[in-house]
Design brief:
With 793 residues, the protein is of the alpha/beta class. It has 33 helices and 21 strands. The N terminus is likely disordered.
């Protein structure tokens, strides 16, 4: 599951068995392609990473045991000389993951090549395990990471860990900063000393003790009062202010700073807030010399703002590809929660998830090429060896050792940064626990023990449900591999293009055109086209059509909110369409605040829905309750979208992060009416009979008062925050956070209302049959503010 780690930005920046398929020349025509399809082949080619694929033996796996067994069978089917390509957000080292690791290593012994691409931020903590996999693979297994620190981040890390000269009466505010920038010529790794590397290690390891050591030790600050805190829990990682035990009101002052920070683009305001957090002060009155000297405010070009704003843009792809002949992709990571049903080996959520498996009879090489584009994307990807060389894991693997080392080297703190660095380095070599070889010996034994435990104690249970694409659907189906990427592949042979930050509108895109594909957001381009298309099919044929978003998270980006608005106000005639949203509740997910603020999106949407156009579709909204029929923890993790006879299965959620920040992938199956019908019937049965879902449509249609919603949400938020730190909800801090939540919820509601309701956008001229340039400009500004605001959440 995703983790909200916005605190870190603040703290640091302040700083071949195949059935025969019909040849394409004689394939049955897609009913959509016979005059009713708005999605042209040219558009499909623009937003898909492959041409039309030919798949056989296609299965949709909603059962965890089936999905895990399918992955293992793929690995065992690999032959000498073939390549297994894996890309995942999470690769754990628990019971089922250890089984998978063993199978991958057995494959390498057979002469199979294995490539594993993982998110760096999430998997840095298991660097020892991944390097051990490489070692045991004997040259046939390589691990790479997506999300390496950029040159500008390294440059800033150097700045943040360099000392200032002593100031005197003649010192100007900018003297220290100017001297540092003069010394810093590049952000190359070879120029970063131990403190800059420690700081980056602290960021990716999410270790506050190491963060304080890197900044304070590197800047030669007085650390006499420095004390080592316990390592943060997951909940504490989400709120650096709580862990710092600061006075929130004195740091943030008022909401004007927040507005200056995110809306007006005042980065100095952001850094003032962040600086206070780093220094753990109870007030925010730093001397100007210190502000300019400690934090990189006046940066030489190029600026690093975007690098820090997007340094937690994850690779959220999930796929295993065997050469060019088998593929499995979807929502599942490599972890027990995705590979098991309820059992005694895991006390975490058991996820309801969905993968697609298929044999590939044509086009598999295109998927491999798409994988290799990301694998070789130099601006964001580096090898595990390079990661360890630059950011050694030895510093962060053992908190107790870190505490002991800081205590032993305390005499050097605040005196000489070189002496402190030498002392800490000596401590590393003196402590056997930090020797990587010793750690990896233990890890290898743990793998074997966990794999043995899995085979001995986990009992596979009967499948919940099993979908198989029928021969009839397979003959008519057109399949496309689609991705959200940090670059646009207008020229698909390029793999070293400039990185795209977020999803900004391109200056050359015509007014009113989203052009998601120009920003690399191809899954969302597919969603947008499919929504419009399903309405057109229903209008043209007069037949009912169904849209389902079965998604772990609901907080749609601005372009989708606007598309839903078009469905409501008649710009798209969707009279015969029914749209179903199914997602998690506060009880079934660890992203509590996402659900809280999503309510205000929903409230705005249903406020407009109550006065919908006569050509609008029917909408319904449901949430999982959080427990199964036996009382076990249950959470939705699927990412399945149904658009009439088309279905998209992949890794992208219906939220801003999936659009604006992370990479994602999926398979778009066009013209699979039998499967779409079977999946829809299964979902409807879940709604009616499972007892797992709660229909909240009427609640939003009735329109509970905004103030009542806020008061109830504040009570729930108060209880959650008190678990992190009771002082957060006491006195002025409690009043401040309450006001912050109320103001954010109001702004989200107002922005959502304007995006959904075309007539809410303020323009001077309302006499227009089509959108004026002023209307379009206002709309784009609203979308930008909306997406950037929700990015914070």
């Amino acid at each position: 599951m995703k983790k909200q780690i916005g605190f870190l930005f603040c703290a640091v920046f302040a700083l071949n068995s195949c059935t025969t398929v019909t040849p394409s020349s004689t394939r049955e025509p897609n009913s959509f392609l016979s005059g009713m399809d708005l999605i042209t082949q040219k558009e499909l080619d623009k937003f898909s990473s492959t041409k039309d694929l030919r798949l056989s033996d296609t299965e949709v796996l909603v059962d965890n045991d089936d999905a895990f067994e399918s992955k293992i069978k793929m690995i065992r089917a690999a032959k000498a000389g073939e390549t297994i390509r894996l890309v995942y957000y999470i690769y754990s080292h628990d019971h089922s993951s250890s089984v998978m690791t063993e199978e991958l290593l057995k494959a390498t012994a057979r002469g199979v090549k294995v490539r594993i691409l993982l998110d760096f931020f999430v998997n840095y903590k298991t660097l020892d395990e991944l390097l051990l996999m490489q070692k045991l693979g004997r040259g046939n297994l390589e691990v790479r990471f997506y999300g390496k620190p950029t040159d500008l981040m390294i440059r800033d890390a150097r700045f943040l860990t360099m000392p200032c000269a002593k100031k005197d009466a003649k010192s100007k505010a900018s003297d220290c900063s100017d001297a540092k920038w003069a010394q810093i010529k590049t952000g190359n790794a070879k120029d970063a000393d131990i403190y800059a590397r420690l700081l980056l290690s602290a960021i990716y390891a999410q270790n506050l003790d190491l963060l304080k050591l890197a900044i304070m030790g590197g800047q030669e600050l007085d650390l006499k009062t420095f004390s080592v805190s316990h390592r943060w829990s997951n909940s504490q990682k989400r709120n650096v202010a709580a862990a710092a035990d600061v006075d929130l009101e004195s740091i943030f002052k008022n909401l004007k700073l927040l507005k200056e920070n995110k809306i007006d683009g005042n980065y100095i305001a952001r850094l003032k807030i962040a600086l206070g957090m780093v220094f753990m002060g109870s007030t925010l009155n730093p001397i100007l010399y210190e502000v300019y000297g400690r934090v990189p405010l006046d940066q030489p070009k190029p600026h690093s703002w975007n690098d820090w704003l997007h340094f937690t843009d994850y690779t959220h792809h999930k796929m295993i590809l065997l050469e060019d002949r088998m593929v499995q992709l979807g929502g599942r990571n490599i972890e027990n929660s995705y590979h098991m049903k309820k059992n005694h080996l895991t006390d975490k959520y058991i996820f309801r998830d969905t993968d697609l498996f298929a044999n590939i009879t044509r086009g598999g090489r295109d998927i491999a090429n798409a994988y290799d584009r990301l694998w070789n994307y130099k601006p964001m990807v580096w090898t595990a060896n390079d990661a360890y060389s630059f950011m050694p894991h030895d510093w962060v693997v053992n908190v107790d050792w870190l505490k002991q080392s800081l205590e032993s080297c305390k005499s050097q703190m605040g005196k000489n940064r070189s002496a402190l660095a030498s002392c800490l380095s000596n401590r590393v070599s003196a402590n056997s626990f930090t020797v990587q070889q010793d750690r990896q010996t233990r890890i290898e034994k743990e793998w074997q023990q966990k794999a043995d435990t899995f085979y001995r104690e986990y009992v596979r249970k009967p499948s919940d449900k099993h979908f198989k694409i029928s021969d009839g659907d397979a003959q008519k189906m057109a399949a496309y591999y689609v991705e959200n990427l940090p670059f646009s592949f207008v020229d698909k042979d390029q793999s070293n293009q400039d990185r795209i930050y977020g999803a900004s509108k391109r200056s050359w895109a015509p007014w009113g055109e989203d052009r998601e594909e120009l920003n690399g957001k191809n899954i969302h381009a597919a969603w947008m086209k499919e929504l419009e298309n399903v309405c057109e099919v229903s209008r043209t044929t007069g037949k009912s059509q169904r849209v389902i978003f079965h998604s772990a998270y609901y907080m749609p980006p601005a372009n989708l909110v606007r598309a839903f608005g078009k469905m409501l106000d008649g710009r798209w005639n969707c009279k015969n369409v029914k749209v179903t949203f199914i997602t998690n509740s506060e009880q079934s997910t660890d992203l509590f605040f996402m659900n809280v603020f999503a309510k205000y999106q929903l409230r705005a949407f249903f406020d407009v829905y109550r006065r919908k156009n006569k050509s609008a579709p029917t909408f319904e909204y449901l949430e999982y309750k959080g427990t199964d029929d036996k009382g076990g923890k249950l959470s939705l993790h699927s990412k399945v979208s149904v658009f009439g006879d088309d279905v998209l299965i992949g890794s992208a959620n219906l939220d801003v992060r999936s659009f604006y920040m992370d990479t994602n992938n999926g398979m778009l199956l066009r013209n699979v009416p039998q499967f779409a019908r079977e999946y829809t019937e299964w979902v409807d049965d879940l709604i009616r009979n499972s007892g797992l879902l709660e229909n909240k449509t009427d609640l939003y249609i009735r329109g509970e008062g905004i103030q009542s919603m806020r008061n109830r949400d504040w009570q729930m938020a108060k209880a959650q925050l008190a678990k992190i730190n009771p002082k957060l909800v006491e006195g002025k801090n409690g009043e401040f956070i309450k006001k912050l939540i109320f103001n954010l919820s109001e702004r989200i509601y107002q922005l959502s209302l304007q995006l959904v309701d075309y007539n809410q956008v303020p323009v001077q001229n309302n006499d227009r049959p089509d959108e004026s340039n002023e209307q379009k400009s206002k709309q784009q500004m609203l979308e930008t503010e909306y997406d950037e605001l929700l990015q914070l959440i």
